Each structure stands twice: as structure tokens, then as C-alpha cells.
Amino acid sequence: PLNAAGKFLYHKTDLCATWEAMEACKDAGLAKSIGVSNFNRRQLEMILNKPGLKHKPVSNQVECHPYFSQPKLSSLFCFIFYSRVNVSSPPLLKDPVLNAIGKKYNKTAAQVALRFSIQRGVVVIPKSFHPERIKENFQIFDFCLSDEDMKEILALNKNVRYVELLM
């Protein structure tokens, strides 16, 4: 929700206490591993610097793609997640740079975007119900983007979210 000035009102949850409860669940065998979702750098650092930390988060499930590359956050760790796509955002897969790079490698813009994330060390879990796209998503390990390609794609960052964080 927003306040009268239009600024986000954040919940006052004690993240460290919540993390301790999650650690207790892991210690009790109720979870193999524990992670977080949509944490920003400050929130991650709060957990990672918590006195008595037993278990580090194994993942931070966040949106991350060429138009929203989150370079500072991905230096900690990043996990791809798409849902509730915001259709008013620019169409990533129609981007001329991604398509030109794709043409160079005989790949689609989607394959270039996935390969870009893989080469940045980001864990990618694409979602599709279409068998041909699922197969296409696996065909990203037979090529590597050049350093120049990576720089061009990184320069596409517009800080545009496709996932609307509705609370």
C-alpha cells in the first residue's frame, strides 16, 4: 500500500526473527534448504550479517532479465522468476539488439536472453507450456555470447519490471 505522499508502506516484519524461525524448520528436518524471495540487497545483507546465523539463504527468487538486470543484487545471488506479466512493459523478445545477436548465433531472442543470464551466473528456470518452447529453452548450451554481446545486452537495462509486486 501507499501512504498519502505516494510512497510505499512497508510491513514491519522482523526479518531476522523470521529467518531464525526458518532456520529452526530446517534444523527440525522440515525443509532441505531455505531461501528468500524478492529481497533487496539491504534485506539480504541484514540476514547474512545476522549474529548467530546458522544457514545462509540458498536462493533469492527475483525477477532478472536484460531489461531488469539488477547488477548489484545479482552479485550476491539471483534466481529467475516470472509471473503476472505486466503487458504495458516493452516487449523484451522483440528487442532489436537481442534479435540481432540471436541472428548471429542462429538463436531466438529468448535463447539469447536465457544464455545472457546463464553466463552471468544466474540460475534460470524458464516457464512454458509449449513443447517447442520448452525444447528451445534447453538449446542454450551450444553457444557462448562474446564479451561484446554481454556488454550490449547489459546496456539494455531499463529497470523495467515485468512482474508486478502487488501486495
From TrEMBL:
Pfam family, one: Aldo_ket_red
Gene Ontology process terms (BP): androgen metabolic process; bile acid biosynthetic process; C21-steroid hormone metabolic process; cholesterol catabolic process; digestion
Top-level taxon of the source organism: Eukaryota
Record-level Gene Ontology MF annotations: oxidoreductase activity
GO CC entries: cytosol
NADP-dependent oxidoreductase domain residues: 11-71, 95-157
UniProt xrefs under InterPro entries: AKR, Aldo/ket_reductase_CS, NAD(P)_OxRdtase_dom_sf, NADP_OxRdtase_dom
Entry similarity comment: Belongs to the aldo/keto reductase family.
Record-given protein name: Aldo-keto reductase family 1 member D1
Organism (species): Crocodylus porosus (Saltwater crocodile)
